[in-house]
Amino acid sequence: MRRMIKDQSGITAIGIVLMLAVAAGVVLIALRLFPLFNEKIQIDSVMNTMIARPDAAKLTTKSAAKPFFAAIAVTNINRFTKKNLKEHLTVEKSKKKGEPKMLRMHYESRSPFFAEVEFVLTYDKKFPLTGPSAGG
User: Fold this and answer.
1) Using one digit for the tens of pLDDT, what is the confidence trace for 43-89?
2) Would you give the DSSP letter of residue 52?
3) What range does the domain containing 53 cover?
């Protein structure tokens, strides 16, 4: 028995196949999740561009659409239209005096995995609208 264990070394063909199957599963999941996280990063960048504007504190829900579409034009995101943007992008007034208004973006993005299984990314972030005219 000891000699048999000493003579055995390496990995079997079944072991290699199992390792490749696990690696393929991880790669498949990564490929399905990448577009969701890439879109999230691009939206974060667009929102940061909007709050960095000198007139950011003056933005309203209606006036935020034009700079949003200008900033998103350089990305590959096409889920937002002029009609549906007001459902996703809003400017919320502060509840306390002296606090800035908040620019809120919220939406849900789905990526199919297989059959009826999907990955879901829920994006709901608020960004403070500060600027030269903030607080007035």
Assistant:
1) 999 999 999 888 888 899 999 999 899 888 888 888 898 889 989 99
2) T
3) 34-129
